[in-house]
Amino acid sequence: MINAKDIIKSYGNGESRFQVLKNISLDIEDHDFVVILGASGSGKSTFLNVISGLERPDSGNVFYDGKDITAFSDHEATSFRKENVGFIFQQYYLLPNLNVDKNVKMGADLADNKNYKTVIEAVGLGEKLHKYPSELSGGEQQRVSIARALAKRPSVLFLDEPTGALDEQTGRQVLDYICKLQKEYDFTIILVTHNLNIAEMANTVIKMNSGKISEIYTNKTKKNAYEIGW
Ligand SMILES: Nc1ncnc2c1ncn2[C@@H]1O[C@H](COP(=O)(O)OP(=O)(O)OP(=O)(O)O)[C@@H](O)[C@H]1O
């Protein structure tokens, strides 16, 4: 379980100091599918970075199963991220000079997972092990980055606008993979987007507005990636 408590985060100094997260508290259950929705600039990415341990809050704490990750040293925070969480961004951040197999192996090596090829199969790229990123479509590249993130078997997968650079058909396919992979590998999903349609796939929807949580609700019925609007 993740508990964020009284999170405050600002950027800038002096007169230009700007409070992006204004005292946010939130609990996230293990294995949940959470979508964080909000307009551009509402603080979604900053909140994701804080609860994933990428950035420190000015004050407040983030607990994973009771362990306060905001109290970690930089070294401890890096190890924590390596061992427990995976990240997917709008950009794929693949290494251009490594093929699919080697890109995913990089993630697998963080957890000493020798069995990482099954994840490549699971994202439908078993036939493309020896292709380089430049030889793949955008959707295929994003699926490689998903396989890389999952190869170390994280308990939480953080996604920041994962379909932002993809067309409709490819975006739906990537979301479909993410849902199927969650069933298979049982991680928690925390996905940030400004796309209201994607929220219909979530179990829990968190709405952010100007650095605060304005609403939290649970979807009674969840749609799949091919049922949502786009
Ligand atoms: N590293 C930073 N330095 C200074 N200001 C920042 C930094 N990161 C974010 N901000 C500011 O904090 C505010 C919230 O940014 P954030 O990226 O969290 O919003 P968002 O809701 O994810 O927006 P978007 O959907 O456009 O990505 C914005 O006004 C942004 O300019």
Automatic annotation (TrEMBL):
One of its GO terms (molecular function) is transmembrane transporter activity. Pfam families: ABC_tran. The keyword ATP-binding applies. The keyword Nucleotide-binding applies. Residues 2-229 form the ABC transporter domain. Transmembrane segments: none annotated. Signal peptide: none annotated. Keywords: ATP-binding, Nucleotide-binding, Transport. PROSITE patterns: ABC_TRANSPORTER_1, ABC_TRANSPORTER_2. GO terms for cellular component: membrane protein complex. Belongs to the ABC transporter superfamily. This is ABC transporter ATP-binding protein. It comes from Schaedlerella arabinosiphila. The lineage of its organism: Bacteria, Bacillati, Bacillota, Clostridia, Lachnospirales.
